[in-house]
Amino acid sequence: MNGAGKIIARFFKRYWITILVYLFLIGLYAYVANNHLINAFLFPTTQAICKAFAGDRYIMLLNLIASLSILVPAIVISLSLALLIGVIMGMNRGLRDALHPVLYTISVVPSILLSPFALLLAPNFRTASLFLIVYESVWATVFGTITGIMTIDRRYLDKAETLELHGFRKLFRVMLPAASPSIISGFVNSLSGTFVMLVYAEMYGAEYGMGYYVRQNAMLGLYDKTWAGFIFMIVILVIIMQIFEKIRNRLLLWTM
Asked: Left (φ > 0), alpha (ψ -120 to 50) or beta: where does 109 sit?
């Protein structure tokens, strides 16, 4: 068996139960919808959903690009703020003891509650969306960064002293790599909420985007396209989550 065959065999050996569960869910929906055992308007047949997906695949791709054009800058801003705040607080116990309760209090405020203010006060929809997505995603990464910096193995710090690494060299070569599993864990935990906030924002103010596509077709009563867009969003979210999960697992192995 060649290399590709071994990879496929390992994949099916590991996920065969998962695959069976997905096939069962798909088959159950197909049986119920195709035999009109449930509201045929809200739950179109699998053939109609597949036809809608094939017909609108380029439109969905365009909406995906529109969503990523907001999501990627928001994630970059969120990570930058999280690292800045988390590193400063993680390295300074006095500052951490004073400000940690304040950050925790702010973080528990749901970003959806701030959406009316953001949409009314921001100069445009894009700025409001960036603010809401950053607010949703930054806190888990901040706390992950603080925890990661606080719990760095003393051996890494001793080696840094031995090599006479100080300041930014110590930070970027020793501290952040050592704390990266905790940072990535916080970031991964925030991803699902980040997508929720992105979709919410797109549903109520965007002209393009995955959330806009689903809402627009639902308002028009085109539920075959609504389901196609919904499934497309889930697939994209799962792929992105799995990518970062793999990165986190590799970092965990690297730091052990």
From this structure: beta
CATH architecture group of domain 49-255: Orthogonal Bundle (1.10)
CA distance 187 to 244: 9
Span 215-249, pLDDT tens digits: 888 888 899 999 999 899 888 888 887 787 777 77
Both tokens assigned to 14 = 């590991």
This prediction has a pTM of 0.78
Annotated domain spans of the chain = 1-38, 49-255
* Integer angstrom CA distances of residue 9 from 151, 239, 249: 39, 20, 21
Q: How is 102-130 classified by DSSP, letter by letter?
A: HHHHHHTS-HHHHHHHHHHHSSSHHHHHH
Pull the structure tokens for residue 122: 């921001």
Residues in Cβ contact with 81 at an 8 Å cutoff, skipping those fewer than 6 apart: 134, 138, 142
